[in-house]
Amino acid sequence: MDIKQIQELIKFVSRSGVNEVAIEQENFKITIKTNQAPTVVHATVPQAPLVQAAAPVATAPTAPVAATPAVPVADDTSKYITIKSPMIGTFYRSSSPDKPMFVNVGDEIGTGKVVCIIEAMKLFNEIESEVSGRIVKILVDNASPVEYDQPLFLVEPI
């Protein structure tokens, strides 16, 4: 399974209403857990040629993530564009602790600008903006776990 297939599987699991899905192949095992009511589905995939020789077991967080602060109801966020997480992982605002942040509130960004890094299964994925505008709010704390499709930034289009 490649990262795109894993992302699609995560998206499917989140919409399906099941609590846990486990897939096992010869040298590959993945378990995806959600915070929904307990329902377990186990699927065994028939033997097929593997693209990957081996992969570690990936487990999504099972506890609710409280890292995203609630946006007050009084704020009108409808005029803003939301940059969302394309995967489950750990959110980082810079490439290392001694490096500057990729973006800060008030910074102008363009399409293709790296706005953060999400670490998933020991891989550091640069997340690029798909919109142009000004960063209005950063919704996640540095080094916090994030879910698939979780809002990360609010951007005011310019």
Lay out the secondary structure.
Blueprint: H1 3-16, E1 20-25, E2 28-33, E3 40-44, E4 58-59, E5 81-84, E6 89-92, E7 108-109, E8 114-120, E9 123-128, E10 133-138, E11 144-146, E12 151-157
Parallel strand pairs: 1-3, 2-4
Antiparallel strand pairs: 1-2, 5-12, 6-8, 6-11, 7-10, 8-9, 10-12
Give the low-pLDDT segments: 38-57, 62-74
Task: Tell me about the largest β-sheet.
Answer: 4 strands, mixed
- H-E string: HEEEEEEEEEEEE
Inertia-based shape: globular
Number of strands: 12
Report strand %. Answer: 35-45%
Domain module count = 2
**Rg calculated over all Cα atoms:** 17 Å
Q: What is the third-level CATH name, the topology of the largest domain?
A: OB fold (Dihydrolipoamide Acetyltransferase, E2P)
> What is the number of helices?
1
Describe the structure.
Helices cover 9% and strands 37% of the residues. The protein has one helix at residues 3-16; strands at residues 20-25, 28-33, 40-44, 58-59, 81-84, 89-92, 108-109, 114-120, 123-128, 133-138, 144-146, 151-157. Strands 3-1-2-4 form a 4-stranded mixed β-sheet, with no helix packed on it. Strands 5-12-10-7 form a 4-stranded antiparallel β-sheet, with no helix packed on it. The protein has a 4-stranded antiparallel β-sheet with strand order 9-8-6-11, with no helix packed on it. The radius of gyration is 17 Å and the shape is globular. The termini are far apart. Mean pLDDT is 77; it is low at 38-57 and 62-74.
